[in-house]
Backbone:
């Protein structure tokens, strides 16, 4: 395969770079004053996500300011629930609100297949971004993993441990499997349309993978993500996938080899030196700076950056946070991070 001139794609093809590509989860958003400014022009967050001009602008803002090696589509993992016919809104300061789906009857009231017309603004956003992205910048699309999306669809809001979905999965596994299966199918179609619109790599966010015991983890996290990757690759064999099973802990090495993804995202709690020995050297690793050390800045930030660079030197690595950037993070600390990365 021809080597891309984009650092992100080179690493996703298994190349180790002396200065790894960098992007940050949630790199577009509230820590940027230019984001807050345009966000205020839309009546709601979901309207913002569905307005291509605004979503494209939000995607590009962090690229212009920091020169990251990849842009991530500005949207949310919960638009898939919206496109399945569930009512979704975002309350300022409180997070997502959905009309809960907790049994077969409620699931049957949703659409069988994702309403792609509803997601048209997302594909238009991708087209707009693609046209104005610098030639060296990769473009990442995404979806939520079925387990993580289902956990919000069942509870109807965020919770500390996704207990509502875990309970439903034990009590009514037939319903929960049907919900997961519907999300697998919807995610394959959604990601494949993203690729057709101009996305170059996809990340699958399994933010709540860490709360499940082994058997449930296999059934609700591992298998559905494998199915999505297989389904996407059947349609688009060369598109690289980054899996981010947050909280997977000791399961990370086995997961990296079994999911079929080109890269595995490491969360903040994973020791990079340990992970280096667990994960097959052909699989790229992404991560895993603590968002709190980026918020804190100073010598602690420099030290944490150096440790991650050292641990992953000589292997394919995409520098990132271990979870999303926090809204109070000072711009100056992101600049400090970029300086530290470019030092050599
Ligand atoms: O990374 C990026 O810059 C791209 C945009 C993006 C958003 N959400 C924008 C957003 C991405 C990739 C997501 C993913 C997402 N959304 C996840 C997985 C990653 C993770 O953080 O674990 C999850 C679980 C969600 C669901 C969600 N969306 C929650 C729980 C919340 C409320 C909490 C919060 O951060 O406010 C959202 C809202 C949301 N998604 C905002 C943004 C910028 C804030 C709303 C606003 O700006 O008004």
Residues:
């Amino acid at each position: 395969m021809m080597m891309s001139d984009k650092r992100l794609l080179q690493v996703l093809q298994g190349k180790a770079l002396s200065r790894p590509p960098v992007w940050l989860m949630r790199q577009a958003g509230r820590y940027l004053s230019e984001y807050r400014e345009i966000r205020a022009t839309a009546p709601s967050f979901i309207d913002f996500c569905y307005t291509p001009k605004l979503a494209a602008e939000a995607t590009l803002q962090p690229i212009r300011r920091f020169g990251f090696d990849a842009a991530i589509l500005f949207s949310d993992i919960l638009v898939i629930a919206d496109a399945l016919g569930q009512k979704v809104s975002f309350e300022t300061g409180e997070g997502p609100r959905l009309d809960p789906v907790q049994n077969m009857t409620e699931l049957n009231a949703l659409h069988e297949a994702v309403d792609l017309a509803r997601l048209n603004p997302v594909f238009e956003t991708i087209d707009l971004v693609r046209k104005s992205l610098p030639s060296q910048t990769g473009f990442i699309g995404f979806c939520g993993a079925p387990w993580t999306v289902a956990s919000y669809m069942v509870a109807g809001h965020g919770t500390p441990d996704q207990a509502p979905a875990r309970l439903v999965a034990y009590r009514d596994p037939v319903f929960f499997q049907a919900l997961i299966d519907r999300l697998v199918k919807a995610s394959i179609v959604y990601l494949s349309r993203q690729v057709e619109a101009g996305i170059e790599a996809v990340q699958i966010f399994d933010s709540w993978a860490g709360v499940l015991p082994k058997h449930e983890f296999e059934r609700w996290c591992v298998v559905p993500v494998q199915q999505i990757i297989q389904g996407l690759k059947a349609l688009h064999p060369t598109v690289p996938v980054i899996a981010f099973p947050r909280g997977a802990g000791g399961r990370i090495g086995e997961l990296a080899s079994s999911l079929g993804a080109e890269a595995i995202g490491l969360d903040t709690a994973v020791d990079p030196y340990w992970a280096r020995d667990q994960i097959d050297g052909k699989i790229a690793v992404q991560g895993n700076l603590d968002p709190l050390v980026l918020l804190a800045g100073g010598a602690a930030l420099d030290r944490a950056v150096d440790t991650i660079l050292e641990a992953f030197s000589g292997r394919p690595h995409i520098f990132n946070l271990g979870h999303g950037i926090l809204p109070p993070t000072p711009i100056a600390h992101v600049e400090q991070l970029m300086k530290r990365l470019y030092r050599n």
Remarks:
- Residues 173-197 form the longest helix (25 residues).
- The mean pLDDT is 97.
- The domain at 7-343 is CATH 3.20.20.210 (TIM Barrel).
